[in-house]
Amino acid sequence: MEKLSKETLEKWNQNPKNWKFGCLYFNPEDNRIFPPKRIPWMGWTVNFANKKSVIVFVIMMTLIISVIIFIPHKKYHL
To answer: pTM for this structure?
Structure first.
């Protein structure tokens, strides 16, 4: 992947056409797995136009859900 200029990355991030429903980032030109959110201090998001990004997102969500389901919960009796 070639090094993109800060201006290009900022232009992509601020372009409303790259945001579906105002919150889902979808930019086929952007190869980053986790680009910053529209408001950068809020963290990162997933580029749903990038297959690698979606695969990483699905794996992470599967792991989180698996941990929640398979961790034994203590039962408290009163």
So the answer is: 0.71
* Distance of alpha carbon 68 from alpha carbon 33, whole angstroms: 25
Cα–Cα dist 43/45, whole Å: 7
Q: For the chain (length 78 residues), average pLDDT per consecutive 10? A: 81 91 91 88 91 94 92 72
In this structure, the number of other CB atoms found within 10 A of the CB of residue 4 comes to 14
Rounded to whole angstroms, how far apart are CA atoms 48 and 60?
14
CA distance 63 to 57: 10
Distance CA 48, CA 24 (A): 7
